[in-house]
């Protein structure tokens, strides 16, 4: 799946002191469910470190960066832009169009924390609702990525992990692949 055009997630509106875990979980969910990288806007440095640390331990590739100019990133992005919002068009109605566009070029998937500037709605090629009910950026990102990749992300393999979880019916087993 990683020969496909890139999918980058942009996390907007991080509020220090309030959104730490959610921002970290946006990054981890983006990585686990098939995106190629996350960009964290505005002072989310510790959260970036956590996602880099997980990538180091559990494998990559996955790019983590931050920006103080998210609006510029949105304006200058060379590809199509998806904004996840409860006010958007139902994901089940637009997913085929988004998949078709992704076959042709990169996608930027934007999620918010608090109120997202109207400019983002205007710049988006698709404002996408995962239901039109309020819930969370982590949940909407997970469902959206799974629809985009049609489940292929669940079988992904990782490069250079220090540790690999061996699925168990009961209990936990984590191995160092170099010891196997
Ligand atoms: N009123 C906000 C909105 O625009 O969706 C809700 C803010 S919510 C706490 C934070 C983020 O979660 C939103 O910016 C959006 O990215 C995501 N989100 C929440 N509910 C969603 C839904 N039903 N569909 C898609 N994304 C959603």
UniProtKB/TrEMBL annotation:
<keyword id="KW-0949">S-adenosyl-L-methionine</keyword>
<dbReference type="GO" id="GO:0002128">
    <property type="term" value="P:tRNA nucleoside ribose methylation"/>
</dbReference>
<keyword id="KW-0819">tRNA processing</keyword>
<dbReference type="InterPro" id="IPR029026">
    <property type="entry name" value="tRNA_m1G_MTases_N"/>
</dbReference>
<dbReference type="InterPro" id="IPR029028">
    <property type="entry name" value="Alpha/beta_knot_MTases"/>
</dbReference>
<keyword id="KW-0963">Cytoplasm</keyword>
<keyword id="KW-0808">Transferase</keyword>
<dbReference type="InterPro" id="IPR002845">
    <property type="entry name" value="tRNA_mtfrase_aTrm56"/>
</dbReference>
<feature type="compositionally biased region" description="Basic and acidic residues">
    <location>
        <begin position="170"/>
        <end position="180"/>
    </location>
</feature>
<feature type="binding site">
    <location>
        <position position="84"/>
    </location>
    <ligand>
        <name>S-adenosyl-L-methionine</name>
    </ligand>
</feature>
<dbReference type="Pfam" id="PF01994">
    <property type="entry name" value="Trm56"/>
</dbReference>
<dbReference type="GO" id="GO:0106059">
    <property type="term" value="F:tRNA (cytidine(56)-2'-O)-methyltransferase activity"/>
</dbReference>
<feature type="region of interest" description="Disordered">
    <location>
        <begin position="160"/>
        <end position="180"/>
    </location>
</feature>
<comment type="function">
    <text>Specifically catalyzes the AdoMet-dependent 2'-O-ribose methylation of cytidine at position 56 in tRNAs.</text>
</comment>
<comment type="subunit">
    <text>Homodimer.</text>
</comment>
<feature type="binding site">
    <location>
        <begin position="112"/>
        <end position="116"/>
    </location>
    <ligand>
        <name>S-adenosyl-L-methionine</name>
    </ligand>
</feature>
<keyword id="KW-0489">Methyltransferase</keyword>
<dbReference type="GO" id="GO:0005737">
    <property type="term" value="C:cytoplasm"/>
</dbReference>
<protein>
    <recommendedName>
        <fullName>tRNA (cytidine(56)-2'-O)-methyltransferase</fullName>
        <ecNumber>2.1.1.206</ecNumber>
    </recommendedName>
</protein>
<comment type="similarity">
    <text>Belongs to the aTrm56 family.</text>
</comment>
């Amino acid at each position: 799946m990683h020969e496909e055009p890139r999918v980058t997630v942009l996390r907007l509106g991080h509020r220090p002191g309030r959104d730490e875990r959610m921002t970290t979980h946006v990054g981890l969910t983006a990585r686990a469910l098939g995106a190629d990288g996350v960009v964290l806007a505005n002072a989310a440095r510790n959260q970036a470190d956590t996602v880099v640390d997980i990538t180091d331990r559990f494998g990559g590739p996955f790019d983590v960066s931050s920006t103080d100019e998210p609006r510029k990133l949105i304006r200058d992005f060379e590809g199509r832009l998806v904004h996840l919002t409860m006010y958007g068009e139902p994901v089940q109605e637009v997913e085929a169009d988004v998949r078709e566009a992704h076959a042709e070029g990169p996608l930027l998937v934007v999620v918010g924390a608090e109120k997202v500037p109207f400019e983002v709605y205007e710049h988006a090629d698709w404002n996408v609702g995962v239901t039109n009910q309020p819930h969370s950026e982590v949940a909407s990102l997970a469902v959206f990525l799974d629809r985009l990749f049609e489940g292929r992300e669940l079988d992904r393999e990782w490069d250079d992990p220090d540790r690999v979880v061996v699925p168990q019916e009961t209990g936990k087993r984590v191995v160092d692949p170099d010891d196997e």
